[in-house]
Amino acid sequence: VQLQASGGGLVQPGGPLRLSCAASEFTLDYYAIGWFHQAPGKEREFVAAIGWKLRTTYYADSVKGRFTISRDNAKNTVYLQMNSLKPEDTAVYYCVADTSWLPSTWDYWGQGTQVTVSS
Could you tell me if 113 and 93 are in contact, meaning their C-beta atoms sit under 8 angstroms apart? Predict the structure, then answer.
């Protein structure tokens, strides 16, 4: 199971950015997909997740109303639309996958993509 996160970059405060998580060599259809981030000197934190069947979504309080997670199973890709970005959103963002919904530990992790929010 290989996950590839992309779409990170430098963005000004208040701006948008969309991250993508693509899978290779397997289908995302039966996996819950999540996003975590890790800021320098801090622990990795949960950001958002989406289920595979009902596409239930769940967000950390810090991103509710600003971030939207979605999935396109035909493209085998999950997206994280981030709006109204804040400097405190600066972190490396990782996508994760698991056959369970919101597990305590996710089975599969992709490499991260850096998001920097700065003027």
Answer: yes
pLDDT at site 29 = 85
Tokens 């958002």 correspond to what residue?
Answer: 48
d(CA 35, CA 24) in angstroms, rounded, equals: 17
Task: Give 49-97 pLDDT, tens digit per residue.
Answer: 999 888 899 999 999 999 999 999 889 999 999 999 999 999 999 999 9
Residue 30: CB atoms within 10 A of its CB come to 11
- As to burial, measured by CB atoms within 10 angstroms (0-12 exposed, 13-18 middle, 19+ buried), residue 26 is middle
Residue 39 to residues 52, 79, 87, 93, Cα–Cα distance (Å): 28, 20, 11, 9
Please say whether the beta carbons of 37 and 96 come within 8 A: no
- In which band, very low, low, confident or very high, does the pLDDT at 18 lie, cut at 50, 70 and 90? very high
CA–CA dist 1, 38 (Å, integer): 22
Amino acid at 25: E
Cα–Cα distance, 17 to 93 (Å, whole number):
12
